[in-house]
Amino acid sequence: MRRAPRLTLPCRSEYLQSTWEKAYQDHRKKVRDAQPLVDTHAPLFLSHFHLNLKKLKLEEDRLSVIDRDNRLLLEKVACIMRTRGQTDSRDDYTHRSRKLY
To answer: Out of the domains of life, which is the source (predicted)?
Structure first.
């Protein structure tokens, strides 16, 4: 253990010198035994902050829309496969002339 250095200010009074040394030794002991004042523990876990019910509901709705769209596409593909993918190539569009003003 390191010995504390003696005070550099010599004093004529032995009593005053010993009082200063005792105060200094007490100070050194307090510094050595000091406990940290910063709280380094993890914060409290509040489940209602981490479980976002609104977000879960929106995600569920989004997934149900995707499932519905996938089912409709599957029905359309199945219909095309049943009818052998025949398309009619008739063009019923009548061309109209544009009026110029």
So the answer is: Eukaryota
Dist CA 26 CA 21 (whole Å):
8
Can you tell me the distance from the alpha carbon of 7 to that of 21, in angstroms, rounded to the nearest whole number? 7
Look at residue 45 and tell me if it is in a domain.
Answer: yes
**What's residue 81's pLDDT?**
86
Q: At 33, which amino acid appears?
A: D
Amino acid identity for residue 64 in this structure:
S
User: For the segment 56-95, what is each residue's pLDDT rounded down to a tens digit?
Assistant: 999 999 999 999 999 999 999 998 888 876 666 677 777 7
44 in a structural domain: yes
Question: How far apart (Å, rounded) are the C-alpha atoms in residues 25 and 99?
Answer: 106
Number of domains within the chain: 1
- Residues 30-41 have pLDDT tens digits of 999 998 888 888
Q: Residue 73 and residue 50: Cα distance in Å, rounded? A: 36
